[in-house]
Design a protein that fits this description.
35% of the residues are buried. 18% of the residues lie in helices and 20% in strands. The strands form five sheets. Strands 2-3-4-15-7-17-6 form a seven-stranded mixed beta sheet. A three-stranded antiparallel beta sheet has the order 14-8-16. A three-stranded antiparallel beta sheet has the order 10-9-13. Strand 3, helix 1 and strand 4 form a beta-alpha-beta unit. It is an alpha+beta fold.
Length: 405
């Protein structure tokens, strides 16, 4: 008989002779271990208590009464330019790597961010500049010192003018995210669209490579996810005439709302607020791809056009940013996870719904170049479609297909 996919059962023949039996073998008498029932309560996750001792007391938020001079432009060189095109240095120790979707988001396992060589750091910058945001699980060795050192490799660390910094002195270039378990839910304070932002785009050199590490937070399923959106993808959603129109426009990015909010809360403003003009479309120095440089949180107007037109464009770009699912990625945090993203080509948004849990994270951001638009820049979608021989994207509705649920 030919071999089958299922091995035939073997017959068991018991001997009638005691001397042929292994009487010492009593394994068959061992009790079968019963599987414990799974504990589950819909919509409810275990809450970690921090009553007695909290290992990150020194990283709790504080608002020191300091005042810094205005930022001035400094030289910047993107380390991603030196990264290997196949990321061979970074991935040499990786055990798994996968994309969340074609546009944005990659997760890497087996890489220790605290022990990267310069070559691996360059590869990391290059990968982030392509994929927008890269996730690393369980980075227990990446303490705040190592996180700052890694960020400083990519550029001068940014000091935020209004938000919390750690209680420990000397960490003024670390931004603290902290929500106590007893805090009130803030969903009523902001509209969902407004929460989408790229960090401090009102600066003359807004950040590039930015890391956020969650050091305490809800367990899996407890809420507090973060979402990112690809600004390469947002640019590629626009029609050719709209792309060309926006390529000639600049937008105003304002720090005044943040400063006013801090003063209203009785907190210091450590650097005077600014309004800065940046191009609506910028070109990335590593990839050469064009991206939309716009976010609902800080853009207050578009320069050189009527207010009604400016408001209409802002509303349209808000919708693209916040509602286009294929350019979004959503990350469900676990303790000691790290997300590394490029603020030049991503917007991100917090999410609520984790009431009852403490959520504590620390962020380090490296300043980048002053945003520039290069007319010779390329479209990410067009370049990758040509490389992988994908059909041209339909933007005029002439080639309809079935909608996928």
């Amino acid at each position: 008989m030919a071999p089958g996919l299922i091995e035939p059962a073997q017959s068991v023949v018991l001997s009638n002779h005691r001397d042929e039996l292994d009487l010492e073998d009593t394994s068959w008498r061992q009790p079968i271990e019963k599987k414990r029932p799974v504990a589950y309560e819909p919509g409810r996750t275990a809450i970690e208590s921090h009553d007695e001792f909290y290992e990150h007391e020194d990283l709790r938020p504080s608002f020191p009464n300091l005042h810094w001079d205005p930022l001035i432009e400094v030289p910047y060189h993107d380390k991603g330019i030196h990264g290997d095109a196949q990321f061979r240095n970074l991935l040499a120790s990786a055990t798994d790597v996968f994309d969340y979707n074609p546009k944005i988001g990659t997760e890497i396992h087996g890489v220790n961010l605290a022990k990267l060589t310069d070559a691996q750091k360059n590869d990391l910058a290059r990968l982030i500049s392509i994929r927008g945001v890269v996730f690393f699980r369980d980075q227990t060795e990446l303490g705040i010192g190592a996180q700052r050192q890694l960020g400083a490799y990519f550029g001068r660390l940014h000091k935020h003018a209004t938000t919390a910094v750690p209680r420990r002195a000397g960490l003024e270039d670390v931004h603290v995210v902290f929500t106590e378990s007893t805090a009130k839910d803030q969903r009523a304070v902001f509209s969902p669209t407004f929460l989408w932002h790229s960090d401090v785009t009102y600066e003359i050199q807004p950040p590039s490579y930015t890391s956020l590490k969650v050091i305490s937070g809800p367990p899996r399923g407890g809420g507090g996810d973060t979402l990112w959106t690809s600004q390469y993808g947002a640019y590629d959603l626009l029609s050719k005439p709209m792309q060309q129109y926006l390529e000639g426009l600049n937008a105003l990015h304002s720090a005044h709302m943040q400063a006013d909010g801090s003063r209203a809360a009785g907190r210091p403003v450590r650097r005077d607020p600014v309004v800065t003009e940046h191009p609506l479309i910028r070109t990335h120095p590593v990839t050469g791809w064009k991206s939309l440089f716009f976010n609902p949180g800080f853009v207050t107007g578009i320069v050189g056009i009527p207010k009604a037109e400016s408001d209409a464009i802002i509303g349209y770009l808000n919708e693209i940013t916040s509602t286009t699912q294929e350019i979004h990625v959503r990350y469900q945090w676990r303790k000691n996870d790290v997300a590394f993203w490029d603020n030049r080509i991503c917007n991100h948004s917090a999410s609520y719904g984790f009431t009852g849990h403490r959520r504590h994270a620390v962020r380090v951001a490296s300043q980048a170049e002053r945003p520039v638009f290069d007319p010779a820049g390329k479209s990410q979608e067009e370049e990758l479609s040509a490389r992988y021989r994908l059909p041209d994207v339909n933007k005029d509705g002439t080639r309809q297909s079935n909608y996928n649920d």
